[in-house]
Amino acid sequence: MAPPPSTHVSGPLTHSLPLKSATASSAKELVVSVEQANALIDLIDLRKGNNALSSAMPVSGLVGAGLADSNGLACDAEAILGPASTVDYRLVIRVISPRPSIGVRNVRIWPSPPRSVIIRSEADGPHLTQVDDCNVPRILAEETLLEPGPTIHDGPPWISADFVQAVRDGDLERAQSALIDVAAKGPSDSHFSQDCRHKRWSVVLCVREERTRDQWKDAGHVECFIIDHMHVQIHAPLDPRVLALMRERNAPTLDAPPRTALWELMMELLAQ
Q: How many other β-carbons are positioned within 10 Å of the β-carbon of residue 125?
């Protein structure tokens, strides 16, 4: 029997960015390839001397670049990522939008006072950095596109499950098609319909993951649908099997609380 589909949404970093060899701009930042970033994320969870390189060996250049050795993380990689191995939870953020200025962005945050670890996808590859722990809330707000703005909720109180799943699959074309179907059910001159038709939308998914004995487990999430005229929360389960059932029953609902309330929900994911 095939295993059930996973509800774990972080997954590996994708190849949406060009690959390049690891380069270090300073001891506080490292730019690596997508494969190297994924392997280093695996190595964060392994302890020294615990056959750490078994999952990283297929990644070309990891050892040669001095990022790993027989004990696991090494040199600059250990200096930057080391604090992440001491914490038992992390935030995984994914932003997807048809806006060229946004596209698809992936961010992981390991909150660890006094220095937290962040891996962020950029145009030249994943950036591995450390920041002061006090800066994490600001970075969380920036990465989740949470900023002051109007709230004109003139669209439907729901969004289609097909749209939510397409976004989580990273399929912008399918997501746009599903969104047009939703917009067609409302007034064509509404702000909601206009923003949807003209591709002025983004979706942010922020998941708290907690470390168990042998894996990371989802421990809460906040998902938001953002257009020029509102910033609303999507109430939809992470489990794709449960979400699929919503195609036939009640669609995921949209809630437009004050943005300060959305910020409180984000901060709850960050709280220890």
A: 22
232, β-bridge pairs? 225
Q: Is 122 helix (H, G, I), strand (E, B) or coil?
A: strand
Give 201's contacts (C-beta < 8 A, 6+ positions apart): 97, 98, 179, 195, 225, 226, 227
Write 249-252 long-range contacts (CB < 8 A, 24+).
250/158, 251/158, 251/159, 251/160, 251/161, 252/158, 252/159, 252/160, 252/161, 252/164
> Residue length, the chain?
272
The reply to whether omega before 114 is within 30° of 0 (cis) is: yes
For residue 9, what pLDDT is reported? 55
CA-based nearest residue to 225, from 192, 263, 250, 194: 192
Which helix (H) or strand (E) element contains residue 261? helix 259-270
Could you read off the pLDDT of 202-235 as tens digits, one per residue? 999 999 999 988 789 999 999 999 998 899 999 9
Closest of 86, 81, 136, 127 to residue 106, by C-alpha: 127
* Prediction pTM value: 0.86
Contacts of 23 (CB under 8 A, 6+ apart): 30, 31, 32
Give the domain ranges of the chain.
Answer: 23-143, 161-270
Joined tokens for residue 76: 């600059």
Query: Measured in whole angstroms, how far is the alpha carbon of residue 79 from the centre of its chain?
Result: 24
